[in-house]
Amino acid sequence: MSNPVLVSVFRGIDAYNALAGVLEGFMQRREKLSPSASLPQAVMALTPEVTFRQAVLFFTEADFVTGKTCFILQEHTYHSLQSLCFSFSVGESWRCRAESLFTYLHTGAQVLCTVLLIKPGVWSQSLAGILRNLDLEKFTLVGMKHIDLEPAIALGLLPSEVKQDPAALEAHCTYLTSGTALVLCLQRPNAVKKLVDLLGPEDPKLAQALDPCLWRAQYGTSTVHNGFYGSKSYQMAVWDMKLFFPEGLCCAKCQTLEEEEV
Fold first, then answer.
1. Could you say which residues of the chain have pLDDT below 70?
2. Percent of the chain with pLDDT over 90
3. How far apart are CA 190 and CA 139, in angstroms?
4. What distances in angstroms separate CA 162 from CA 101, 166, 170, 202, one per listed residue?
């Protein structure tokens, strides 16, 4: 092979699909800009098994950069490179210590926790069905409490776009503080993303159009009365767990929770 090859390893949530989408978009843009030019080729591993076998050929554990660090390679820097990209899903992690990514490939998705808040008026009428759905989706309940939300806490649960609209902000805060909410801490592999996917968009009408089985499509009636709040990221899930369950959880202390001091 006459040209150099760039070998990269990426990590992230749903990494295979995410990387495939990025590569497809990259190739489409390059073809539009230079339809007659010789374009670099990109090849990616499609399974954890293939990723592991190929990563061993090119890297040692000392070569990996772990934790929150990432590198961005500008496109023009590698104008004529042929790149070989490896990617794998390793679950959400915000740890900064040295990690063995080879070990993660062997162990698979981590068991994580996330927080589901069932808004006033919803849990008292539909709790049995919601718990049944959680069981079907392989969630384990490791924390539960009734809570009357204070205005400051209710404000922290709202999306940024709601906070920019004074009328919407008042409507949301008034509703969230109008009665008792039920807060659940849930555990399973890839828990944060799984719950976000099950809840669907904040607007129940949009959720209904996308998939009537989405939980906000089933239990929500408006953007204010949309049934649920769910942690949107692992970082937010850790914050939510510390906020709502400072006394601890009823699950066994795993390494992830110990490192996050939950």
1. 1-2, 13-14, 30-40, 49, 61, 64-109, 251-262
2. 44
3. 10
4. 39, 8, 9, 11
112 vs 208: CA distance, rounded Å:
28
Stated as kind and residue range, the H or E segment containing 132 is helix 123-136
Q: Is 57 helix (H, G, I), strand (E, B) or coil?
A: helix
Alpha carbons 247 and 236: distance in angstroms, whole number: 18
| The residue type at 115 | V
CB 42 within 8 A of CB 85: yes
* Domains along the chain with CATH numbers: 9-72+98-108 (no CATH), 111-245 (3.30.70.141)
By the 10 Å C-beta count (0-12 exposed, 13-18 middle, 19+ buried), 49 is classed as exposed
Q: Report whether 153 contacts 195 (CB < 8 A).
A: no
Say whether pTM exceeds 0.70. Answer: no
Residue indicated by tokens 């068991």: 111
How many Cα atoms within 13 Å fall on the side-chain side of residue 85? 23
Q: For residues 63 and 65, what is the distance between their CA atoms, to the nearest angstrom?
A: 7
Residue 152 tokens read as 């400051």
Q: Read off the amino acid at residue 176.
A: L
Q: With the C-alpha atoms ordered 99, 105, 106, 111, is the resulting torsion angle positive or negative?
A: positive
How crowded is residue 228: how many other Cβ atoms within 10 Å of its Cβ? 22
Residues shown for the chain: 262
- Which residue type is seen at 223? T
Question: CA-CA distance, 248 to 230, in Å (whole number)?
Answer: 19
pLDDT digit string, tens, across residues 140-187? 999 999 999 999 999 999 988 888 899 999 999 999 999 999 999 999
